[in-house]
Specification:
By secondary structure, the chain is mainly β. It is built from two helices and 15 strands. Helix content is 4%, strand content 46%. InterPro entries: AIM24, AIM24_sf, Trp_RNA-bd_attenuator-like_dom. This is AIM24 family protein.
Length: 226
């Protein structure tokens, strides 16, 4: 191989999910250990891997996606190496060890199919916008890959009394055991966030983390959900 190009060759497999650079996910696929991934995210693969868009398990959960929360998913199965990406976004790999993560569906790239997952309403926000905000909650023992529009910051809420405030359009994920409430800003509406009118933030408190990206999702997540 040409020496300059050799530096881009994939490293030996050391885990189920790994980053290849900052913008691509490498998944070690094995028969019986299926993966759910965002439709259209496959950029390359080695070996024998099959794809099934909108499998039955996803269709059952998709009934909740009338809320606007949810990403079209495909089931990936087989043996080999699978490479996924989402328009050059940063990829963040998480190994769940019996715990959970609540994810903005637009930032969900892939996760182990055996994990428990579903669409849940975020409590404490209904009074701010229609029926409130919905997120995809994933829990169990396994791997999850998220995307971020730029290098994210992971804030440890630390379990103290101080709250962590986040623009919902920049929110990627958070620990589901955190307490969440909404906050309106009137005086600072022209300074916080990029939307017009009132500015909303989400306040997190308790023991856990919040993942925030340096770019705001244009879907306006606190707008009315049907």
């Amino acid at each position: 191989m040409n020496q300059p190009l050799a530096g881009y060759a994939p490293a030996p497999v050391t885990a189920r999910m790994e980053n290849h650079g900052g913008h691509m996910l490498k998944v070690a696929m094995q028969t019986g250990n299926d993966l759910l991934a965002r439709v259209g995210s496959m950029v390359a693969y080695e070996g024998f891997i099959q794809y099934e868009p909108n499998p039955p398990a996803v269709r059952q959960i998709a009934r909740d996606w009338i809320t606007g929360e949810g990403a079209p998913l495909m089931k990936c199965s087989g043996d080999g190496l699978l490479y996924l990406a989402d328009y050059g976004a940063d990829v963040v790999v998480i190994n769940l060890n019996g715990d959970g993560i609540s994810v903005n569906a637009t930032n969900l790239l892939a996760f182990d199919a055996h994990l428990t997952w579903g669409v849940e309403r975020v409590k404490g926000l209904a009074k701010f916008a229609g029926q409130g905000l919905w997120n995809t909650k994933i829990s169990g023992q396994g791997w999850v890959a998220l995307t971020s529009r730029g290098t994210p910051i992971v804030v440890d809420c630390g379990g103290g009394e101080d709250e962590t405030y986040v623009d919902p359009d920049a929110l990627v994920a958070w620990s589901p055991n955190l307490k969440v409430k909404g906050k309106r800003s009137f005086k600072a509406q022209s300074l916080i966030g990029r939307g017009s009118g009132e500015a909303y933030q989400m306040a997190f408190s308790g023991q856990g983390i919040v993942v925030v990206q340096p770019s705001e999702d244009s879907t306006d997540r606190l707008r009315f959900r049907g």
